[in-house]
Design a protein that fits this description.
alpha/beta
Length: 466
């Protein structure tokens, strides 16, 4: 059992809840040592908060939390009499609140406030957030080795951000937190839970247009992160972004750094392409006139721009160009992002974690460069979700670009949103990944290079496993 997170009094005070089962007076267990909203993560001494989400209701897992020896329970609804009696018999305090998720978030906010010396970087953007987060964390590790906490995976929503805040300890020097959004107002709320000292918008692109309508709507939503950054802090954003004026307005009087591929950017990236089996990038700092070239495993001009964003972050944190370059070269991206591996002579280029029109076009450019000498090439492209009324046009334009850029390649589409465009272009099409896997099994020969790109829900990443 670890050190105390919250006393019983602090739990009630921060959540505004009332005790259904009050802690025993003079209890030797003075509170809880961790907080979870997932019963599978509960450990002895923890508070389990029952939240209600789209896919699961935490109230259905109270028994599992008790089995895992939770020290206390926080819930919205009165539990059934059997569970209530079980908690009474075991002396488990039970706190009832109006809204479980709000209570979970308020506790996370209170936990963050216990570390006033910690420096926080918050990142948002339409695509590439996770890659940029990994680059930034790798750069900052050069100055604070072993003391940089970063968002796990892509846990960047109203559940994930609090979960990552609860991972903070007194050993954490820097926190790199990813914040995502698919509805207006979500970024403003997330950043209010943990206002950063450095705020980064890595790009403005065509993601979640079903809810943001156009790129200026995206810029307005993402710009809320800059407006929520500490007024004495730094804000960083792309110089060539659509809605740059909106980002600049949100930056206010905070110290600004821009990045991009133009001479106007404070940190400029130039993608120099594939050389001797590695990809080469030049970074230049406008104010100092310093330039550095380096090689790494990641191809594509879009990743060079993400590197420039991380370099701007490193600059705001006071790192030297040499430290920044070392961090970038040491970075390894998590699976399903620009992952290249050979299985039985077939090379799979797996970038199927997420997709929108911007990231999909970038993936096509990356694959064209990477597979230029391949004997055979196959592109398996799946649905790009949450594009609203723009979906049909976006899928048609993507598949047209694929056919234009790869006239000799076999192009296959997967998913309902691709169907109309595939029919228009007379391309192979499958309604879902399982159908495609069954039909395509055994049809790829050694020497073939295959690109996988789609929104995560399409599950194209399962192809290499077959």
């Amino acid at each position: 059992m670890g050190s105390l997170f919250f006393s019983w009094e602090e739990l009630a005070e921060n959540t505004g809840g009332e005790w259904l089962i009050a802690p025993e007076a003079g209890s030797c267990n003075a509170g809880v040592t961790s907080v979870f909203d997932d019963s599978r993560a509960v450990v002895p001494g923890a508070l389990f908060v029952a939240t209600v989400g789209e896919l699961a209701d935490g109230h259905q897992y109270l028994g599992q939390a008790l089995d895992a020896k939770a020290a206390a329970i926080c819930l919205e609804r009165m539990p059934d009499e059997r569970l209530l009696q079980r908690m009474r018999s075991a002396g488990i305090p039970c706190l009832q609140v109006k809204h479980g998720l709000a209570a979970f978030q308020r506790l996370a906010q209170a936990h963050r406030q216990k570390f006033p010396e910690l420096i926080e970087l918050a990142i948002t953007g339409s695509c590439g957030k996770t890659s940029t987060k990994e680059f930034c964390a790798a750069v900052l590790e050069q100055r604070w080795p072993g003391r940089v906490l970063k968002t796990l995976g892509n846990t960047n929503n109203h559940y994930g951000v609090p979960r990552n805040l609860f991972r903070l300890t007194s050993e954490t020097a820097v926190a790199v937190l990813e914040m995502g959004s698919n509805h207006p107002g979500e970024i403003a709320h997330l950043v209010s839970l943990a206002p950063p000292q450095v705020g980064l918008v890595c790009n403005i692109g065509q993601a979640h247009l079903e809810f943001f309508h156009d790129l200026r709507g995206v810029a307005t939503e993402k710009g809320a992160l800059l407006a929520g950054t500490d007024e004495q802090g730094w804000v960083i954003f792309p110089r060539e972004a659509e809605g740059y004026d909106i980002l600049l307005e949100n930056a206010g009087k905070r110290r600004c750094l821009t990045f991009g591929s133009s001479l106007d950017a404070d940190v400029r990236s130039e993608y120099l392409g594939l050389q001797n089996g590695l990809f080469r990038v030049r970074l230049s700092w406008r104010d100092s006139g310093v330039s550095r070239e380096f090689s790494w495993q990641l191809g594509g001009a879009h990743q060079a721009l993400n590197a420039a964003a991380a370099a701007a972050v490193g600059t705001a944190f006071g790192l030297t160009p040499d430290e920044i370059i070392r961090g970038l070269q040491n970075c390894v991206l998590p699976g399903k992002r620009m992952e290249v591996r050979e299985i039985d002579g077939i090379t799979w280029c797996n970038d199927a974690y997420n997709s929108n029109p911007d990231s999909a076009r970038a993936a096509l450019d990356w694959f064209a460069e990477l597979s230029a000498s391949a004997a055979k090439r196959v592109l398996i492209l799946g649905d790009m979700r949450e594009l609203g009324g723009n979906a049909a046009k976006a899928h048609l334009e993507l598949l047209q670009k694929a056919r234009c850029d790869f006239p000799e390649a076999r192009i296959i589409s997967v998913g309902a949103l691709c169907a109309e465009a595939a029919q228009t272009l007379a391309l192979e099409h499958f309604p879902d990944t399982d159908t495609a896997k069954a039909a395509l099994k055994g049809t790829f020969s050694p020497g073939t290079w295959i690109l996988l790109k789609a929104s995560n829900g399409v599950q194209l990443y399962r192809f290499p496993e077959a």
